[in-house]
Amino acid sequence: MSLIVIGASGHGKVIAEIAEYNGFSDIRFYDDKFPNLRNIGKWQVEGTVAEYLANQELHSLTVVAIGNNGVRERIQSKLPLVCDPLIHPRAIISPSVAIGKGSVVMAGAVVNADCKIGDGVIINTGAIVDHDCVIENFAHISPQVALAGAVKVGCSSWVGIGACVKQSIVIGQCAIVGAGGVVVKNVADSTTVVGNPATLLVK
Questions:
Q1: How far apart are CA 120 and CA 140, in angstroms?
Q2: 37/31 Cα distance (integer angstroms)
Q3: Going by DSSP bridges, is the β-strand pair 26-30/39-40 parallel, antiparallel, or unpaired?
Q4: Which of 15-24, 57-66, 74-83, 162-171 has the lowest mean pLDDT?
Q5: d(CA 128, CA 126)
Q6: What pLDDT is attached to residue 59?
Q7: 2-77 adopts what CATH topology?
Q8: Is 66 annotated as a binding residue?
Q9: Which residue in 47, 60, 50 sits closest to 4, CA to CA?
Q10: Contact at 8 Å (CB) between 18 and 75?
């Protein structure tokens, strides 16, 4: 099977390896660093993102391997063929979980009963998403994050590495939880919280 990966980076390499575990053997990259960048690991970079989007004949199943939530959403929204979720074989996913198109679940992640994971979501290495959580489209749950039960993470929000979130907390849209943050109160849209307990970062 063939897969196009948008974004030739370390994150892209991780996703390409997960894709191989999922049965993809022909994996090619597109990235705006082309033509200066022609290879990423063992894979070829074949052109820019704009070139790929403009040439309908090139279109194959595609995953966007870009960590920036807004950029990932913008590109995925233009793709006619977005791949089904890519899940590492060493992730643990409850059979009652729903996961949207273009989402990726990395090694060691745990997603428990009745969670709902949107489109274009990243559940990164070793993250724990406990029962009944809702992760909306294009959010990023970083490595070693722990979400207790019934947490909601809004669209395009980013929960930083090692953060912990108390049960039933709501994190709004386009919000950021800083690395190692301990979230015990709801987080408003488009805000950044940091620390233990996590408090609003005033810029």
A1: 9
A2: 8
A3: unpaired
A4: 57-66
A5: 7
A6: 78
A7: Rossmann fold (3.40.50)
A8: no
A9: 60
A10: no
Going by C-alpha positions, the residue among 181, 14, 41, 16 that lies closest to residue 109 is 14
Q: Write out the two tokens for 108.
A: 């060691």
Is 157 assigned to a binding site? no
Q: Among this protein's residues, is 131 annotated catalytic?
A: yes
Annotated domain spans of the chain: 2-77, 84-193
Please tell me whether 161 is known to bind a ligand: yes
Q: Which two tokens stand for residue 74?
A: 């913008």
- The span from the CA of 47 to the CA of 43, in Å, is 13
- State yes or no: 67 annotated in a binding site: yes
pLDDT digits (tens, 9 = 90+) for 104-141: 999 999 999 999 999 999 999 999 999 999 999 999 99
Catalytic pick from 45, 131, 169, 177? Answer: 131
Domain 84-193: give its CATH code. Answer: 2.160.10.10
Mean pLDDT (the chain, rounded): 96
Annotated ligand binding at 140? The verdict is yes
pLDDT value for 58: 73
Contacts 24+ apart (CB under 8 A), 140-145: 140/67, 140/69, 142/179, 143/106
pLDDT at 56 over 90: no
CATH fold match for the domains 2-77 and 84-193 = no
User: What does the pLDDT read at residue 202?
Assistant: 81
CA distance 159 to 148: 13
- In the block, which residue shows the tokens 């990726």? 104
14 pLDDT higher than 90:
yes
